[in-house]
Amino acid sequence: MVVFTPVSSPMMRFAETFAKNVGGAETNVAIGLARLGHNVGWISKLGTDEFGTYILNTVRGEGIDVSQVKRDPDFPTGLYFKEIRNPEDIRVSYYRKGSAASTIQTNDINEDYLKNAKYLHVTGITPALSDFAYQTVIKMMELARKHKVKVVFDPNLRRKLWSEEKARTILTEMVALSDIVLPGIEEADFLFQETDMAPAADQFLARGCETVIIKLGEKGAYLQTKNESGYIEGFPVKQVVDPVGAGDGFVAGFLSGMLNDLSLTDAVRRANAIGAMQTQVKGDYEGLPDNEELHQFMFQQNNVDV
Ligand code: KDG
Q: Is 242 part of the annotated catalytic residue set?
């Protein structure tokens, strides 16, 4: 999506000028990984409007393969407005009903492209966009499993996009098609009515996932697999400027750790670092670091470097 943020006043109703940027959980993760030097492709649909061109250029400019992005002249590119009243009170307004992305269909997916990936990253936002988008994301997860591509799932519950009942049913279905799940603690609670870490993680593992990492914001994260479990401490953050995208930064950090063959614990430590860094800069992905910035941050903060 294109994201507009009020500039002249933090409140939308008084703002006369807006900053224009790119937002979207999946593009945030893709950008985070590309900045760390990994090969990333983004699969989506955009309008043929100016906003679609702007997003395509931005994502391509970050070094991401956009060969699987389709453009559709009949539907507009999705938009959203982000009102940062203060870092604890962020309000979003979506303009994405009938967007090009919501019309993505199973026959937009190229199986040969997908099967060459190591990981498929999906979120629980896509199925909330339309029935077509729901069917497409499920098909992608099934294809990935068929080709032994690891499925990484961030539930990213967006209550504004669908009913609680539908969200719970579909997100639980997606958990069962995933290898690695990275929920926030509120999402674990929403899905399984469980706020204690180990029993919450057990619920995910019982549905067939191999790794669960529960994001705990500034406190870090809780990791559980069949063989290991534990908390991995977060990095101190002096002042949060904009928390949006921190969870995506976390996912990018974790996946980059996996791609670099780090241990699970070290990958989560990297994830914590990138999540913290992303909160220091305004924008959904702007604070995501390159390798040099990441290593400098980790070394300065904790004397650790992974
Ligand atoms: O995780 C950050 C995203 O929430 C943001 O970039 C916009 O994808 C978005 C959404 O649906 O809210």
A: no
